[in-house]
Amino acid sequence: MFQEFYPLRLQDNCEVEHLLSPEVSQEPISLRSPASEVMTDFSQTEPITVTEGVSVDDALERMKSQHVRMLFVITLAGRFVGVISAQDIAGSKVIVYMQNHGVARNEVAVGHIMLHKQYLRSLTFDQIRHSRIGDIMLTLKNSGDQHLLVVDETELGIRRVRGIISASDISRKLKVGFEIMYEAKSFAEIEKIITQGGEMVV
Q1: First vs last C-alpha separation in the chain
Q2: Under 8 Å CB-to-CB from 52, ≥6 apart: which residues?
Q3: Cα–Cα distance, 136 to 39 (Å, whole number)
């Protein structure tokens, strides 16, 4: 059975002292960096999902275990129908649903309080490829959205969610609070804030 295989010679590791780390671009991210730098690309990262019938508390536990604050909601057939965030579960949505429908908390499902996809806004992947982080930041500021879906199209013309961009990711990567950036009066001022480590200079 194993005639076509052979054991490999094992090596001694006494002289090995270093661990390899992935190469990271030395160029710091700025407002002029490609927008793709702040996009979670589902061609490279698996989207974290939950089915619409799962209880909100189980969904919250899934977020904690996956270290995310938002889940993509799908049907049992795998069709995308919306999103749910930790804020949705921790906020008033659950209590309001319980009061309006006379149910206990463990009866509240993801599908009852999720944000349906028709209320989400999106950009195309082509828009992302030709945009910079500053463009995205201004778009989020003007729209008031915390998240934007990124949609592309297959060769057969099927539209799909390619990724997501969130205000919190931009804030984390630029190391500046979004609310601080919103207080700035110009992009030059924002760049100064980024350079000075996220502090607003009066």
Answers
A1: 76
A2: 73, 74, 75, 81, 82, 109, 110, 111, 114
A3: 10
Burial classification of residue 193, based on how many CB atoms lie within 10 Å of its CB (0-12 exposed, 13-18 middle, 19 or more buried): buried
In tens, the pLDDT along 164-179 reads: 999 888 888 887 766 6
User: Considering the entire predicted model, what is its pTM?
Assistant: 0.76
CA distance 116 to 99: 21
Within 13 A of 187's CA, how many CA atoms are on the CB side?
11
**Cα–Cα distance list, 194 to 1, 27, 142, 164, 176 (Å):** 62, 14, 20, 23, 6
* C-beta of residue 41 within 8 angstroms of C-beta of residue 147: no
Question: Which domains, ranges and CATH numbers included, belong to the chain?
Answer: 35-195 (3.10.580.10)
